[in-house]
């Protein structure tokens, strides 16, 4: 039996830095870039003597990085010990495996036989990330191809990943994978946790059909996936982050308020003395107080992401600098955060109002959105022929204004903290993008820096924006909003890619 689960990457549209503290909200959009985890038994059958074994085998393969690690999993302590490895360790997946198995033990306290049989067959885990999680800009340039989405689309699916070159400073730093900032570690951890929990029978994700969440049971199952993935991700990265990336990987696009870090205290303090099943039982029973509200972009709007090619930024060190500034300048930082929070709320209100207007008066909404998609923002109001259309334009302009206020406060915060939250090069690019026909918003996602820029475009205007970006040396990525969270797939995504490619060949 093979289980394939996938989880999406994310774009944090508002709430950068603020989302680290309750009760500030962030709007996070999940994307069509997905991480896949494939779980199946390592051995066809169980050897008769294996019932006396204290260990079972776990194999973790990452084909894109040409890595394979073999582990022994202690059936008593549920700890993983690497036996052989062709690359560096993956703490996120290791914790996800240990915690998912511990959750299975905690769930099947009485009936351990079926679980024991599954575990003794070994676990064969394969992880695959869509190309959108990684930067292939250098390869495209090296092949002499133009910086366009078409060039990206010409790469084979799940292409092998190259590493950034060693630092020229001579420091012996391990080369890092060039990423695009879509939250690959959160999507990967969530996919592995979901696939294992389903494989071990802790949750049943089969009913997460087209529109997700048929009933309370589905939500409860997703909540278990969320707790295990969130715990594995936080412990794997060595700190309790805000968790918005894992939450959107599980539940999809949303408005998010973080959980209180205390819910993870038992996992953080777990030593060899406390059995892992107890720790995970504690975490599952803890009062997870995060809040999420359904959210997605209004109709006829497209999320675009662009890679400016100035190299990525380190989020943890930028967060550290902001926290240091908050401590040293309490009054000024509180004021900046208050204004940022107001801008975020205003943007959210305008977008929600636009969704409601689309619901109530779709024809008028569609008509004015398509008209505005051909014009720069200052001409939008001229095209409104009746009150509903004028109302739509008023909300569009309000959303733009809120975005400009957010960007201003983010720049101010960056200057005060001495870090490039919206660097000058990004500011020029964002201003140029905001002035293009049919562009509603442009900004920097998440913690900012040099990683990526996003735009929200109206109607069919995204094509012109990607062309304009290309001429500005910005590579428009093949990323769009997809509001769905974690899901169960029918088969190995690589097989699906091959069949689609084969079926598109025209035979003479």
UniProtKB/TrEMBL annotation:
Pathway: Isoprenoid biosynthesis; isopentenyl diphosphate biosynthesis via mevalonate pathway; isopentenyl diphosphate from (R)-mevalonate: step 2/3
Listed name of the protein: phosphomevalonate kinase
Key words, A-Z: Lipid biosynthesis, Lipid metabolism, Steroid biosynthesis, Steroid metabolism
Annotated InterPro entries: Erg8, GHMP_kinase_N_dom, Phosphomevalonate_kinase, Ribosomal_Su5_D2-typ_SF, Ribsml_uS5_D2-typ_fold_subgr
Enzyme Commission (EC) number: 2.7.4.2
Domain GHMP kinase N-terminal: 179-252
Taxonomy, superkingdom: Eukaryota
Protein source organism: Datura stramonium (Jimsonweed)
């Amino acid at each position: 039996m093979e289980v394939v689960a996938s989880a999406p990457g994310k774009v944090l549209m508002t709430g950068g830095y603020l989302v680290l503290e309750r009760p500030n909200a962030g709007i996070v959009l999940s994307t069509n870039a997905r991480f896949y985890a494939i779980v199946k038994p390592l051995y066809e059958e169980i050897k008769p003597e294996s019932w006396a074994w204290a260990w079972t085998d776990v194999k973790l393969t990452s084909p894109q990085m040409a890595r394979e690690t073999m582990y022994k999993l202690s059936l008593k302590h549920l700890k993983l010990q690497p036996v052989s490895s062709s690359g560096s360790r993956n703490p996120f997946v290791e914790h996800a495996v240990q915690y998912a198995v511990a959750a299975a033990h905690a769930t099947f306290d009485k009936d351990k036989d079926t679980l024991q049989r599954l575990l003794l067959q070994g676990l064969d885990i394969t992880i695959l990330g869509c190309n959108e999680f990684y930067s292939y800009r250098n390869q495209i340039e090296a092949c002499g191809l133009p910086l366009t989405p078409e060039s990206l689309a010409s790469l084979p699916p799940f292409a092998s990943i190259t590493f950034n070159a060693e630092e020229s400073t001579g420091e012996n730093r391990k080369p890092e994978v060039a990423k695009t900032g879509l939250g690959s570690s959160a999507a990967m951890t969530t996919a592995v946790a979901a696939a294992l929990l389903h494989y071990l029978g802790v949750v049943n994700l089969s009913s997460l059909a087209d529109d997700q969440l048929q009933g309370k049971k589905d939500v409860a199952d997703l909540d278990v996936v969320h707790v295990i993935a969130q715990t594995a991700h936080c412990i794997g990265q060595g700190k309790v982050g805000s968790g918005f990336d894992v939450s959107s990987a599980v539940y999809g696009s949303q408005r998010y308020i973080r959980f209180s870090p205390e819910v993870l205290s038992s996992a953080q303090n777990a030593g060899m003395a406390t059995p892992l099943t107890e720790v995970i039982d504690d975490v599952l029973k803890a009062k997870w107080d995060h809040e999420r509200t359904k959210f997605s972009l209004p109709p006829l709007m497209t999320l675009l992401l662009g890679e400016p090619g100035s190299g990525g930024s380190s989020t943890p060190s930028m967060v550290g600098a902001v926290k240091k500034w908050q401590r040293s300048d309490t009054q000024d930082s509180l004021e900046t955060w208050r204004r940022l929070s107001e801008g975020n709320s205003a943007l959210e209100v305008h977008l929600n109002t636009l969704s409601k207007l689309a619901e109530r008066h779709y024809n008028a909404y569609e008509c004015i959105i398509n008209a505005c998609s051909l014009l720069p923002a200052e001409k939008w109001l001229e095209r409104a022929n009746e009150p509903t259309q004028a109302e739509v334009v008023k909300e569009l302009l309000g959303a733009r204004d809120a975005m400009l206020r957010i960007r201003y406060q983010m720049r101010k915060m960056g200057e005060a903290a001495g870090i490039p939250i919206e660097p000058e090069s990004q500011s020029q690019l964002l201003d140029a993008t905001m002035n293009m026909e049919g562009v509603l918003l442009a900004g920097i996602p998440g913690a900012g820096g040099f990683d990526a820029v996003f735009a929200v475009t109206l109607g069919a205007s995204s094509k012109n924006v990607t062309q304009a970006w290309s001429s500005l040396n910005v590579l428009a990525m093949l990323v769009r909003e997809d509001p769905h969270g974690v899901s169960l797939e029918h088969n190995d995504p690589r097989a699906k890619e091959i069949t689609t490619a084969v079926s598109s060949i025209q035979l003479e």
